[in-house]
Amino acid sequence: MKKTILVASLFAATAAQADERFAVFDLGSLDTLNALGASDQVVGLPKQILPEYLSAFETDDYADLGGLRSPDLDALAESEPSLIVYTGRQGEWKEEFEEAAPLFEASLSGDDYLAAFDDNVRTLGEHAGLEEKAESALETLHEEIETQREALASAPRTLVIMHNDGNYSLSEHPVIHDVLGIDKQQMPESAETETFGERSFTRLSPEAIAEIDPERLLVIDRSAAIGQTPLDADTLRQQLADAGADSAEVAVLSPELWYLSGGGLQSLGLQIEEVVSALATQP
Predict the structure, then answer these.
(1) Is the pLDDT of residue 157 over 50?
(2) Domain limits at 207?
(3) Contact 259, 219 (CB under 8 A)
(4) What is the predicted pLDDT for the residue at 144?
(5) CA torsion through residues 251, 257, 260, 266, sign
(6) 44: left (phi over 0), alpha (psi -120 to 50) or beta
(7) CB within 8 A of 81, min separation 6: which ones?
(8) Per-position DSSP letters for 248-283, written without gaps between them
(9) Looking at 97, 119, 146, which one is the last position of a domain?
(10) How many angstroms separate the CA atoms of 88 and 129, rounded?
(11) How many domains does the chain contain in total?
């Protein structure tokens, strides 16, 4: 009798989780729910800017909750979520979100990016009633990461930069340096670091990049990701050539993938593929 009651209780708990209604303001979490097969549990998301690989969420089956930094609170309430997934980008609306539903803060914080990523996938899997599927997906992903880390052990000297409105700054992206183990480059004295609030930026001119002398230059184009004027890669190559860094091979990474939807099961796999391709012997 006790066993029957226990099984019934477990079934009821799983069913309750499977009925979770997600309002998702984090595209990485949306990506993960999609990969786990829980897209039918998503009730709303910000449709202002969606990467192409998540375009299936543009349909009327999902409420449009505004932008990543400009949530539509009326649409959120009307979607009647049971859980709101958000990050620091929406931090100033936390109190308003709490009035609509319980919250899950999905920011990947701390010193161990991959551990935080794993925790997010497991938490979303639990809420969706898909714990086993989440564990299986993580196991497959970790095997791929180990394979690619070994393949990249002798990768060319690599520098990662962010482009924003014609300016360049250092990007020590955790997927590249922490997950894949690509060595960071030492900054020259000419590279200036500026602090704005709690964030610091190391500006990099073409001349500073020439001093670093990378063999591969990976570019994350913030401007393109947010709908502004994208980087002209040929202009960057000419700037580097004029500064004496004409031997650096330039690879522009997929802007939306790296700036908007990172931190998801699909996006991390896609990011790994892009880095491996960019750091191949012949780019």
Answers:
(1) yes
(2) 158-278
(3) no
(4) 97
(5) negative
(6) beta
(7) 21, 22, 23, 43, 44, 100, 101
(8) PEEEE--HHHHHTS-SSHHHHHHHHHHHHHHTSS--
(9) 146
(10) 26
(11) 2
Q: Determine if residue 244 is left, alpha or beta; phi over 0 gives left, psi from -120 to 50 gives alpha, anything else beta.
A: left
- Say how far apart CA 149 and CA 167 lie, in whole Å: 31
Question: Cα(100)–Cα(178) distance, rounded to whole angstroms?
Answer: 36
Among the ranges given (12-16, 43-47, 215-219), the one the predictor scored with the smallest mean pLDDT: 12-16
Q: Which residue has the tokens 């491996």?
A: 276
Residues 59, 98: one domain?
A: yes
Q: Which residue type occupies 39?
A: S
- What type of residue is 32? T
Digit-coded pLDDT (tens) for 161-173: 999 999 999 999 9
Spell out the residues 6+ positions from residue 80 whose beta carbon is closer than 8 angstroms to its own: 21, 43
**Residue ranges of E strands in 95-198:** 103-105, 158-164, 167-170, 193-196
Q: What span, in angstroms and rounded, lies between the C-alpha atoms of 283 and 281?
A: 6
- Measured between alpha carbons, how far is 13 from 180 in angstroms, rounded to an integer? 37
Q: Which two tokens stand for residue 2?
A: 């006790």
Residues 118 and 175 in one domain: no
Residue 283 lies in a domain: no
> CA of 238: how far to CAs of 75, 231, 241, 254, in Å?
47, 13, 5, 21
- pTM of this structure: 0.89
